Amino acid sequence: MNSTEWTRKFWEQSDRIFWAGLVLGLGLSWWYATNQIVEGDQTQMIHKGYLGAYQGVWMSFGNAASVVGNVPGSVLAWVVGGPLFVWDSPYAPMLFLLLLRLAGFLMLDAVVRRVFPGSGLARLSFLLLCWLNPWFLFDSLLYNPAYLIFCAGLHCWTAWHMQHERRLLMTVLHVLSIGLAMQLHFSWPVLVFLSALMFYRGVLKVSWVGVLIATALIVVSLVPYLMQLWADPSLAHNPDPDARKRFIGWGALNVYPVLKAVLYWLRYGSWAFPSKLVNDTEFLWVGVQFLPVILENLWKIFMGLIGAVTVIIAAVANLTALSHIRPRLKRSAGTPVEPLDWMLLYSTAAFIAALISAGLAPIVFNYWHLTLIFPFALFPVIFWVTRYLGRSAQREARPVLAVAAFLVFINVVAINDSEKFSYAADYAQQTIEYVEREVGPRVR
């Protein structure tokens, strides 16, 4: 079979290749999960979940945040403790997490398929840039931002179905995606501003009955937290004196947090990966004298170059997408938009929402604070790839496989040797030892 025939068959089988890539990503996610180092946020979540499942004590508040106290609600306890009723194993909460992340990605994929009908390139590009991306897979561990991809997927998928008409169920689910994010992480205002901007633009039709129903459900779910907050107001505050000096709008006054949010938007669309993935890799598992030091330096140089080049590509992609969508940014509630334009409007709204949130936040964002917008930062890149690389890609499939191999390689290194993961870590054993020490035996 010659190269042309092979390439033709490759694109004919792009759907099957997509599902194979999905399974590959699940395997990598599970590998990440079982190699995670249990500490910090993970121990907070394990404690809350096992305390509920084993002792019947369900905490009505989540993990402590950097400045503004504890996350409201008991969702973080239930996403760990709930699966333990089905399968009493440290792997049960991780399996549930990976299924939620899979569901979030598939909802985003459903939108991509509707924006680019019949385009194997668009679907495979999103698979590579999102599902197999170390930016995404590096969060395959038991901490609250890891769950946000489900909220992002649900928000985008419901927004897609709300662009032409008011739909009760979709509105309820759309608002619940924000309410769920609120009980997972304090970055939830990003989704509020995103929805508000899409509504203002006229491409998000809202059922106000649905809004009331969803809001009532969210309030009811927060009743235990509100009761505890009434008894203990310190839950909403950080005891650190420096943290108490922060205020809403601190980010805008200091400017840098907003600029950093812009940089993260570009980095999400590139391969300028988190420093926790790159800078803490020491290759100690190689076991050959002097070789780990050499590999460590080569690794940092290589990742720095790749990061710099791809950030430039992401910037070009965003400028190209902005040039395309600029004439459609003006509010026009009665004028329908094309699917591609809707996707780019949604992405633009996500970018603006991130800047607003960064300006209002009392902290300087790190990459996990904006993980809600990670998949939306990929939309301009997918637009650029399909618009300007589409024809050449249809004639050549090997670059797709090369990118997949590159991403798998980066993930394998990160799984075995980075700040959050290690080849020497045993997630299950760490969890069992922690539960025995801090929670005790199961009594319920």
Summarize the structure.
The protein is mostly helical and 444 residues long.
Task: Report what the structure shows.
The chain is mainly alpha-helical. Helices cover 67% and strands 2% of the residues. The chain is built from 23 helices and two strands. Strands 1-2 form a two-stranded antiparallel ribbon. Helix 17 (291-325) crosses helix 20. The radius of gyration is 22 Å and the shape is globular. The model has no long low-confidence stretch (mean pLDDT 89).
How does the SSE layout of this entry go?
Layout: H1 3-12, H2 14-34, H3 41-55, E1 61-64, E2 70-72, H4 75-86, H5 91-115, H6 120-131, H7 134-137, H8 148-161, H9 168-182, H10 189-201, H11 208-221, H12 223-231, H13 241-244, H14 250-254, H15 256-268, H16 275-278, H17 291-325, H18 339-360, H19 374-377, H20 379-388, H21 390-395, H22 398-416, H23 427-438
Antiparallel strand pairs: 1-2
- Described by the principal axes of the CA atoms, the overall outline is globular
- Strand arrangement within the widest β-sheet reads 1-2
State the distance separating the first and last CA atoms: 63 Å
- Give the integer mean of the pLDDT values: 89
* Uncertain runs: none
Give helix % range.
55-70%
Helix-and-strand structural type: mainly alpha
Radius of gyration: 22 Å
Could you give a short account of the major beta sheet? 2 strands, antiparallel
What string gives the helices and strands in order?
HHHEEHHHHHHHHHHHHHHHHHHHH
Number of helices: 23
